[in-house]
């Protein structure tokens, strides 16, 4: 049967081309499916990591940083993309309508209100005021697509809040030296400056950048308590060395200004070769008859 197919394909090049195209499409679909499954597995393992002592301490620190930012962002609708904790991370926001979207809502079914993947959000364009990305870009195969989706659903002057792991920190050193790439070390750490560059390419204005959690990633509770002094020292002396960061961007929209046509005055009806009368010319008053007689007598 294979020999018959090869002979038929040799006689019919179009059949061979269609078969090759179908195989390429099938391989791409399998790769995309594998990437999606790997992302889901990594995020599931990251949820388990946030239940450990180090993950809980980081979650508390991130909750405090989010409270400082969200209290000053206003609007009608807030969207949190990805749910890693069984608690509301956006409760400090003054926006009443807050929605959580996640690709695997079974783990956090009490908080997730919508099912969807970050690269293709099932939300109308220009409808969300604030979007929160809680460690979403590190575990996505196409982070640029996620940011494009955020730009699409945000209203003009809307805000995006990105939380991520800082590669230029003790956490980045731990990831570089780690042999066992469990969560969160299996993620792709990107710096806050990289996030700012990506946002600027999409037309966002940079509003705020903050770094936090300056202690090394240690699971031991006693050591973490002894290293609390690094938090105050890090905020003052090395603020860019935090283990994680928070970046706030504002969607910039340029509105066109209508330029009215400039009306030109009509051409003059007088021939330009004719000298026009000057307004500065003085006109002498007519001489009376008595003045003429006086001039004649003097002469």
Instruction: Write down the overall mean pLDDT.
Output: 79
Instruction: Supply the CATH superfamily name of the largest domain.
Output: Vaccinia Virus protein VP39
Total number of helical segments? 9
The stretches of 5 or more residues where confidence is low (pLDDT under 50) are 1-12, 22-36
Overview of the molecule:
The protein is of the alpha/beta class and 299 residues long. It has 2 domains: 12-43; 45-251, Vaccinia Virus protein VP39 (Rossmann fold, 3-Layer(aba) Sandwich), CATH 3.40.50. 40% of the residues lie in helices and 16% in strands. It contains 9 helices and 7 strands, in the order H-H-H-E-E-E-E-H-E-H-H-E-H-H-E-H. It has helices at 2-11, 13-49, 53-70, 143-153, 170-177, 192-201, 221-226, 229-237, 289-298, and strands at 77-81, 97-102, 114-115, 128-134, 154-165, 204-212, 244-251. A 7-stranded mixed beta sheet has the order 3-2-1-4-5-7-6, sandwiched between helices. The longest helix has 37 residues, at 13-49. The model is unreliable at 1-12 and 22-36 (pLDDT under 50).
